Amino acid sequence: MSNLRLDKLLADTGRWSRKEARELVKQGRVRVNGQPVRSPEEKYDPAGLSLTVDGTAVLYEAYTYLMLNKPAGLLSATQDRKQKTVLDLLPPELQKRGLFPVGRLDRDSTGLLLLTNHGELAHRLLSPRHHVDKVYLVQTEGEIDAADCAAFARGMTLGDGEVCLPAGLEPLENRPGWCLVTLREGKFHQVKRMLAARGKPVLSLERLSMGNLHLDKALDAGEYRALTPNEVENLLQSAGLGTKKSQS
Ligand code: URA
């Protein structure tokens, strides 16, 4: 990989804007290979680089990984001529990074949305072959019963003939009308279509997790943060792309 400016290396982690990264360096809070550096324009080869901010190791990733708590009312898309998309929530420097949402949430759905520019990871997280579970907290009209759970567990064929893999359905005991749905694939409007086929239309739907990545409850709707190095590593592992090298 070619040498990159220090402020870009820091901003590429998704934790700081380019401007914030420049400030950190100028304030003497950044060390490269153990040495304090005060010039943001200094260039380094990212391979094997040791980078710290305030003494804490920072993982440089060629890719960016963000967790967004998607609010209702935005499209899970990179751009749209008429409507706002989840990318509109990001500052310009992150918008330029080729990020895209992994696994769509409907306009009215909320919760965990992974934004990345790591295409192979996205492909693996969504492919049924890699068995990455997605868990949704769902409110339905009508109570879920044992027959609904059995139908999900068997794998349902929808009205249009589309076949769904076996899925989890678990009513929440102390929250009547609410349930957890676990899917390992991501067909169009899948949760809504499966529950509608059981006569239990969805009233609200929030994604809680994808593989071992869980929605951070500290994020309000519309807020995002960079994944921690451990979250990145765990996610890569769960998709069969793990490498101990990517841990800080
Ligand atoms: N299934 C749906 O029906 N909608 C979503 O947003 C996600 C899964």
What this model shows, in words?
It is a single chain. The chain has helices at 6-11, 18-26, 92-95, 119-126, 146-154, 190-197, 229-238, and strands at 4-5, 30-32, 35-36, 43-44, 51-53, 56-57, 65-70, 100-102, 110-116, 134-140, 168-171, 178-183, 202-210, 213-214, 224-226. It has seven helices and 15 strands. It is elongated and about 65 Å long. A hairpin with a 2-residue loop joins strand 5 (51-53) and strand 6 (56-57). Helix content is 22%, strand content 25%. The strands form three sheets. Strands 7, 8, 9, 10, 11, 12, 13, 14 and 15 form a nine-stranded mixed beta sheet that branches. It has a four-stranded antiparallel beta sheet with strand order 3-2-5-6. It has a two-stranded antiparallel ribbon with strand order 1-4. The chain is an alpha+beta fold and 248 residues long. The structure holds uracil.
